[in-house]
């Protein structure tokens, strides 16, 4: 009764109709996963007047399809009708590589003028952050898929000069830290737009990236829903804060590859949340 945890929830799920704005897709995915487990003949209808991060909802629906769940959905994902009476069964399959994590070695290559080959990814995957490789291609990188005997490889090679672009990150908010770091080393202006949902992650990633890249000498302007970055400046390494946010830590680390001098990122251990060993892969010195 004080608005704080713990929260006590009691069933049964009765169905009905609800309208919910989803600045993050997790609100909708949670309802989509829970609704099929209601009693048989229960119908849940969900109106979605706002939906960010739609590719993550598509991943949820792919799981429901694999489970044979009965539902209807508008093509624009603004309305769902889900029937109860389902039960989830064990299924087998290969867990695909994580495009959100793959963003960091790819952007590291783009920033440092190198080439990287990534394993374990699939060009047919529904993950939204697959689009990051399109962003890098638009900035001038050579991005190439190759099918090998043991699966796909994805190579990213830096151009002679990265070019600034306008990128709509609404479906890929986790890409903002890595793309903000990359944009610092691109000629011209990069606009990362339509991504207000980046402010409600582990940190306000728009504000944090503007603040920390600014310490390195980057010129950026916050928008309510993104960042405008003036690239091509010489950046100088210094002490920056990772804010205990795994993606911020990794983004600042790859920015440090092209800074003059040494860049020190605190709370670096946070990178292990999604990519254990990434900082060591860069050759970083880990200091307790």
Please give a structural write-up.
The chain has 288 residues and is an alpha/beta fold. The chain has two domains: 68 residues, Translation Initiation Factor IF3 (2-Layer Sandwich), CATH 3.30.110; 181 residues, UDP-n-acetylglucosamine1-carboxyvinyl-transferase, Chain. 27% of the residues lie in helices and 22% in strands. The chain has eight helices and 15 strands. A four-stranded mixed sheet has the order 1-2-4-3, with no helix packed on it. A four-stranded mixed sheet has the order 9-11-13-12, with helices on one face. The chain has a three-stranded antiparallel sheet with strand order 5-7-6, covered by helices on one side. A hairpin with a 2-residue loop joins β12 and β13. It is globular, with a radius of gyration of 21 Å. The relative contact order is 0.10. The mean pLDDT is 96.
Order of strands in the sheet with most strands: 1-2-4-3
What is the CATH class of the largest domain?
Alpha Beta
Shape: globular
Instruction: Describe the largest sheet.
Output: 4 strands, mixed
Q: How many domains is the backbone divided into?
A: 2
Beta-strand percent range: 15-25%
Q: Considering DSSP H and I runs of 4 or more, what fraction of the residues is helical?
A: 25-40%
Oligomer: single chain
Low-confidence stretches: none
Run of helices and strands: EHEHEEHEHEEEEHEEHEEEHEH
CATH fold naming of the largest domain:
UDP-n-acetylglucosamine1-carboxyvinyl-transferase, Chain
Protein name: 3-phosphoshikimate 1-carboxyvinyltransferase
Keywords: Transferase
GO molecular function, one term: 3-phosphoshikimate 1-carboxyvinyltransferase activity
GO biological process, one term: chorismate biosynthetic process
């Amino acid at each position: 009764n004080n608005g704080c945890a713990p929260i006590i929830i009691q069933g049964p799920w009765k169905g009905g109709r609800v309208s919910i704005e989803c600045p993050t897709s997790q609100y909708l995915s949670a309802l989509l996963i829970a609704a099929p487990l209601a009693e048989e003949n229960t119908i849940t209808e969900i109106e979605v007047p706002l939906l960010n991060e739609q590719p993550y909802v598509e991943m949820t629906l792919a799981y429901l399809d694999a489970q044979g769940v009965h539902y209807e959905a508008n093509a624009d994902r603004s309305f769902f009708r889900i029937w109860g009476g389902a039960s989830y069964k064990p299924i087998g399959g290969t867990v695909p590589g994580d495009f959100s994590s793959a963003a960091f070695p790819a952007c590291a290559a783009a920033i440092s003028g190198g080439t990287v080959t990534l394993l374990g990814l699939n060009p047919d995957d529904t993950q939204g952050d697959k689009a990051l490789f399109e962003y890098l291609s638009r900035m001038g990188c050579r991005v190439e898929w190759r099918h090998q005997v043991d699966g796909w490889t994805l190579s990213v090679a830096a151009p002679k000069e990265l070019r600034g672009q306008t990128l709509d990150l609404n479906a890929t908010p986790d890409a903002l830290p890595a793309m903000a770091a990359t944009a610092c080393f691109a000629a011209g202006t990069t606009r990362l737009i339509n991504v207000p949902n980046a402010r409600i992650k582990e940190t306000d990633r728009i504000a944090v990236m503007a603040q920390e890249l600014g310490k390195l000498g980057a010129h950026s302007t916050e928008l309510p829903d993104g960042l405008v970055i003036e690239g091509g400046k010489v950046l100088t390494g210094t002490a920056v804060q990772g804010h205990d946010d795994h993606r911020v830590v990794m983004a600042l680390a790859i920015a440090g590859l092209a800074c003059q001098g040494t860049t020190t990122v605190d709370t670096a251990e946070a990178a292990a949340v999604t990519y254990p060993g990434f900082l060591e892969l860069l050759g970083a010195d880990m200091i307790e």
